[in-house]
Each structure stands twice: as structure tokens, then as C-alpha cells.
Amino acid sequence: MTKTVFVTGGNRGIGLEVVRGFAKAGCKVLLGCRDEDAGNEVKEDIVGGDVHVIEISLNNEQSIIDPFVRAEAVFGGIDILVNNAGVMEDSDLSSLSLDDFNSTMQVNVNAPLTLIQQALPGMKERGFGRIINVSSGWGSFHEGMEGPLAYAVSKAALNALTKNVAGALGDDSNVTVNSVCPGWVHTRMGGSDAPRTPEKGAETIVWLGMLEDDKPNGKFFRDKKEINW
Ligand SMILES: NC(=O)c1ccc[n+]([C@@H]2O[C@H](COP(=O)([O-])OP(=O)(O)OC[C@H]3O[C@@H](n4cnc5c(N)ncnc54)[C@H](OP(=O)(O)O)[C@@H]3O)[C@@H](O)[C@H]2O)c1
User: Fold this and answer.
1) Quick check: CB of 112 below 6 Å from ligand 1?
2) How far apart are CA 19 and CA 104, in angstroms?
3) Domains in the chain, please, with CATH?
């Protein structure tokens, strides 16, 4: 059966390649972005596939819930949710403002939480769901929690969200939640020195979403291999 995928930040970078990847795999893809025109512009270049633009700002709970509920009403239940959108403030302990910290947490953690709360009941009811949180090695305790402060803390919190929700679902569930580090990717966020293409960054995310029988839950991946938290 055709799977319906919801991708946040689908208008550029890794998110756009995730949209392309799922479209190529035959899914119906809802390309979430905060500027509908930007979404429509990139959609024109996606050859084939069933892609629809959903305007969604991740800035507060209601700006997330309203378009998500409308999208499910129009396009049907979401089978695969990719929490890809993210922001990175380049501030350290002395320069970071609480406002910037809070807005980073809103987009990188609170928004994924809200979307999971919205998507999960339907996934459980239908007996299938794949949730992929796009995290970072900079949110990994094992890798030293490097990177700008708010970003690192937010990605560690996103990993904690993955682990906690996955634990509550249990390993026998056909609804899974996993985190992915895409590696250092050449995008607006990653910058031009980054060695990876957005296609490479998207690869593990699409792979996890399309897994049917082998269904890891509560794990952290890079390059289709489990990595340490
Ligand atoms: N690039 C890397 O090297 C790297 C490494 C590790 C992890 N990641 C993670 O990978 C994910 C994608 O990153 P990227 O490199 O593709 O970044 P990017 O090119 O900067 O794209 C970020 C996306 O998030 C969207 N976004 C940001 N704030 C939003 C908001 N308030 N509401 C709705 N959408 C919002 C952006 O929308 P606009 O276009 O409207 O701004 C854009 O679509 C992020 O979670 C990032 O943390 C990236």
C-alpha cells in the first residue's frame, strides 16, 4: 500500500532530498515548509512522485497542529513522519540569549514532540508507523556533545525524546521511533566545506522509513548503522 510521508523543512537541504527519496520510492509525500511559495518552487523540480506542499510553521504548538490536522484530513493518515527541520544558533555560553535558546528548543525539540503527539495515535490505530528524528552527532554524549550550546542541548534532548517514546511503544510495536545523524552535509546549515551531499544525508532517513520487517526502535543511526548515543 502507498505510504504517506510528512517531512518538515522539506523545501531545502536534507529535507528536500528526503522528499525526493520517498517520492522516488513511490510514497505520497507531504512537503512541510513554512513558506508555501518556496515549497511550490522546489516541487516543480521533483520529477514524478506524488508530492504536496503543506505550509507549516514550527514556531508554536497551534501553528503546527492546525496544518497537520488539515493535512491528515485531506491526504489521509501519516505513516512516516520525518522531523527534519532544524535551526542552529552559533552562540556559546557567554553570548547565548535565553530567547535564542528557547527558539532553538522550540524548532528542534518541541515541534517534533508536538508532531509525534499528533501522528502517533493514528499510527497505533492503523498498526504501522515510522518516526524519524533528524538529530546530530553534536547531540551525542558519546561523541563529546560538541557544537554550539543550544544546538547540542536540543539534539541531545531530541535523542532523549526518541529513546523515551520508543521505550513506551515497546519492541513488539509496528510503530517505531529512531534518530538519525546525517553526517556533515553541504546545506545552508552545514556550509560549503561540508563533504557530504544532501542526497547522502537523506539516505539513512529514507532507508529507515521504508524498512518493513526489520524494524529497529529507539536507536540512533548514521550511514545505516547503529551508533552510540
Ligand atoms: N547539514 C548538516 O551538516 C547537518 C548535520 C547534522 C544534523 N543536521 C540536521 O539535519 C536537519 C536538516 O538540516 P539542513 O542541513 O538541511 O538545514 P537547512 O538547509 O538549514 O534547512 C533547515 C530547514 O528547516 C526549516 N525550518 C527552520 N526553522 C523552521 C521553522 N520555525 N518552521 C518551519 N521550518 C523551519 C527551514 O525552513 P526555511 O527554508 O524556511 O528556513 C529549512 O527547510 C536539521 O535538523 C539539522 O539539525 C544537519
Assistant:
1) no
2) 23
3) 4-226 (3.40.50.720)
